[in-house]
Specification:
Peroxisomal Thiolase, Chain A, domain 1, 11 helices, binds acetyl coenzyme *A, five-stranded mixed beta sheet
């Protein structure tokens, strides 16, 4: 449903963080039987960042959160809601969001984790939007942070070339609104999941099932087919809910998993290639961090300006998928 309440969630700032260490395709070719040509041609990925041994998801997330707060010109004490999307928490519990809360010096409000794999950031943004529009909270940090390098099987060439570590964050603030779709803020969000697809993209360990952390396993072709075939429905739902069209968009910021999926999804939706923000070549698939990482790059290089209409879209394990249409 389009949002009609008197409150709207306006994005005030965005930030990101990538660990220092870069792992290139050439270096990967020394670990497994692959090549720079194969990886670039099939995925568009050129390099990915890998967290240092003692660098955890909460540390990456806190860096990104500080950058988002800086752009928003806000302080820790202004935040009363922190939602962290991650599938690679520091510990089984407490939540990694509470560790970021402590690290930032936020001592009020609430912080919690949300798990929707690569759709996590869009799910977290939609959740924060519902909190803010209800009037219960005023300013939220929505963070996607991951250390997928810790759950990768580094002997499996079909998955280890695809993923990387990183974090991205936005600050969203509840603001008065007349409900006009030309005013700034999140216009509509649409989330879906279908748990029948677990086997196609999953981790083969967990506290309850195996008492281990496990490794990521994926049927690449099946995931590809689903990502291109099904996921566009949530983008169409966002257009239908607002009466806006692909022509109205300034930017399309999809999950950064694979350049071919990004290109095919945009084409299917009738979105012009020059409106597509793609950063997957720089950091690979960083799961829940990928959309805010792309947003941060496009904001910093001046592409996304206040007032622009931006469509966010993501798909991940579960399967889960979702969209958020934002007047920046
Ligand atoms: N280097 C060289 N060869 C490889 C590699 C590699 N890294 N990986 C696989 N191959 C080989 C395969 O073994 C196969 O060889 P064969 O023909 O001798 O059997 C051949 O390349 C073709 O393999 P396919 O799997 O058919 O290749 P495809 O074109 O489908 O590309 C890929 C594989 C890139 C994984 C693709 O399927 C894909 O991108 N899928 C989506 C993955 C994705 O986005 N996952 C994340 C989703 S989001 C989330 O929630 C985590």
């Amino acid at each position: 449903m389009p949002h009609s309440s008197k409150l709207r969630s306006v994005v005030r700032g965005v930030g990101a963080y990538l660990p220092e260490k870069i792992l290139t395709n050439k270096e990967l070719a020394e670990l497994v039987n692959t090549s720079d040509e194969w990886i670039v041609q099939r995925t568009g990925i050129q390099e990915r960042h890998i967290a240092a041994k003692d660098e955890t998801t909460s540390m990456l997330g806190a860096h990104a959160a500080r950058a988002a707060l800086a752009e928003a010109e806000l302080k820790a004490e202004d935040i009363d809601l922190i939602i962290l999307a991650t599938s690679t928490p520091d510990w089984t519990f407490p939540s990694t969001a509470t560790q970021i809360q402590a690290e930032l010096g936020v001592h009020q409000g609430v912080a919690f984790d949300l798990q929707a794999v690569c759709s996590g950031f869009v799910f977290a943004l939609a959740t924060a939007d519902k909190f803010l529009r209800s009037g219960s909270h005023k300013r939220a940090l929505v963070i996607g942070a991951e250390t997928f390098s810790r759950i990768i099987d580094w002997t499996d060439r079909t998955t280890c070339v695809l993923f990387g570590d990183g974090a991205g964050a936005v600050v969203v603030e509840a603001s008065d609104s007349t409900g006009d779709r030309h005013e700034r803020g999140i216009l509509t969000t649409h989330l879906r999941s279908d748990g029948r697809h677990r086997s196609k993209l999953h981790v083969d360990g967990g506290p309850s099932a195996t008492q281990t952390v496990g490794h990521l396993r994926m049927e690449g072709k099946e995931v590809f087919r689903f990502a291109v075939g099904q996921v566009t429905d949530v983008v169409k739902d966002a257009f239908a809910a607002t009466g806006l069209t692909a022509d109205d968009l300034n930017w399309f910021v999809p999950h950064q998993a694979n350049q071919r999926i990004i290109d095919m999804s945009a084409h299917k939706l009738g979105i012009a290639p020059e409106k597509v923000i793609a950063t997957v070549h720089l950091h690979g698939n960083t799961s829940a961090a990928s959309v805010p990482l792309a947003l941060s790059v496009a904001r910093q290089d001046g592409r996304i300006k206040n007032g622009d209409l931006v469509m966010l879209e993501a798909v991940g394990g579960g399967f889960t998928w979702g969209s958020a249409l934002v007047r920046w």
